[in-house]
């Protein structure tokens, strides 16, 4: 089968443009921000700090897929409104999750890039609808998706005429229990071989433990990732979701100091 996602001989990696940010070029891109948008102050302080430290895109969820329906499920439209204000203030392009095809328009009013979460990687209606928008998409790997299933999921978006797709490895379910998921570093070079799409790594959900985020992030860069998505919170202990895997500002600063030399060692740049 000749898939649109497939890399043909010598084909360059497709560049995905999100505002002024180019994903898939020589420059490594770091997207950082909280798991969930909790308040104006929380998002503003995080955005300013990650921007100062070299992140060029902001993340933050307004619609959160949670295992329990009784957990904090995001601030919805209020969250989007906060995101829009912080985007205007900082100039950072933003990525946020769209969980439901019915929310696409609302999310598109703010998002420079749609995030399709792990749990929705095989929601084919949603994939088709975001494909129609032509807006960049960060497609996270399903919790238990093979590489092939993931590529076919991307194909749903590509086949609607939207070639602005970035694949994001975020760990998969294995028998291991020490970490939240098992990061499949091999997926990064494998996808580079098989597809022309840029590949990201999210070591926050991949590991589920903040202390493991930086070393795994560096491994991802060494393996050829085009960028990182990192959860950062001003006070991880007080976070309404994913605090245990979120870096505080100090730890994010330490990661950013280490990213440059590793990026350079594999022929990449970082601002
Ligand atoms: C997230 O990025 O906050 C998230 C819910 O990720 P995933 O879909 O990979 O679990
Ligand atoms: Mn999260």
Task: Describe, in plain words, how this protein is organized in 3D.
This protein is of the alpha/beta class and 271 residues long. It has a single domain, classed as TIM Barrel (Alpha-Beta Barrel). It has helices at 40-52, 77-90, 104-108, 124-133, 147-158, 187-194, 203-207, 210-222, 249-265, and strands at 16-18, 21-23, 29-33, 57-59, 94-97, 113-116, 137-140, 165-169, 199-201, 227-231. It has an 8-stranded parallel barrel, surrounded by 5 helices. Strands 1-2 form a two-stranded antiparallel sheet. Helix 4 (124-133) crosses helix 5 (147-158) and helix 8 (210-222) runs parallel beside helix 9. The longest helix has 17 residues, at 249-265. The radius of gyration is 17 Å and the shape is globular. The termini are far apart. The structure holds phosphoenolpyruvate and manganese (II) ion.
Features:
alpha/beta, binds phosphoenolpyruvate, binds manganese (II) ion, TIM Barrel, globular, 8-stranded parallel beta barrel, 10 strands, 271 residues
Instruction: Write the CATH homologous superfamily.
Output: Aldolase class I
**Physical arrangement of strands within the biggest beta sheet:** 3-4-5-6-7-8-9-10
Rounded to an integer in angstroms, the radius of gyration calculated over CA atoms is: 17 Å
Q: Name the helix and strand elements from N-terminus to C-terminus, one letter apiece.
A: EEEHEHEHEHEHEHEHHEH
Total of helices:
9
Question: In angstroms, what separates the terminal alpha carbons?
Answer: 39 Å
User: Taking all residues together, what is the mean pLDDT?
Assistant: 98
Q: What's the count of strands?
A: 10
């Amino acid at each position: 089968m000749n898939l649109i996602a497939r890399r043909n001989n010598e084909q360059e990696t497709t560049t995905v443009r999100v505002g002024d940010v180019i994903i898939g070029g020589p420059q490594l891109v770091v997207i950082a921000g909280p798991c969930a948008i909790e308040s104006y102050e929380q998002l503003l302080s995080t955005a300013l700090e990650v921007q100062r430290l070299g992140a060029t895109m902001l993340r933050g969820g307004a619609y959160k897929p949670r295992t329990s329906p009784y957990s904090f499920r995001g601030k919805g439209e209020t969250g989007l409104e906060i995101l829009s204000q912080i985007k205007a203030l900082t100039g950072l392009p933003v990525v946020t999750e769209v969980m439901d095809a019915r929310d696409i328009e609302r999310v598109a009013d703010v998002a420079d890039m749609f995030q399709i979460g792990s749990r929705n990687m095989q929601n084919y209606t949603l994939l088709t609808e975001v494909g129609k928008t032509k807006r960049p998409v960060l497609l996270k790997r399903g919790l238990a998706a093979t590489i092939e299933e993931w590529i076919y999921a991307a194909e749903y978006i590509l086949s609607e005429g939207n070639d602005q797709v970035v694949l994001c490895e975020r760990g998969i379910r294995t028998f291991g229990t020490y970490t939240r998921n098992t990061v499949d570093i091999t997926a990064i070079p494998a996808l580079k071989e098989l597809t022309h799409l840029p590949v990201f790594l999210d070591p926050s959900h991949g590991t589920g433990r903040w202390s493991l985020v930086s070393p795994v992030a560096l491994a991802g860069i060494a393996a050829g990732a085009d960028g990182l998505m990192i959860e950062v919170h001003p006070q991880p202990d007080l976070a309404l979701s994913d605090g245990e895997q979120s870096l505080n500002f100090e730890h994010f600063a330490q990661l950013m100091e280490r990213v440059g030399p590793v990026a350079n060692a594999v022929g990449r740049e970082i601002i």
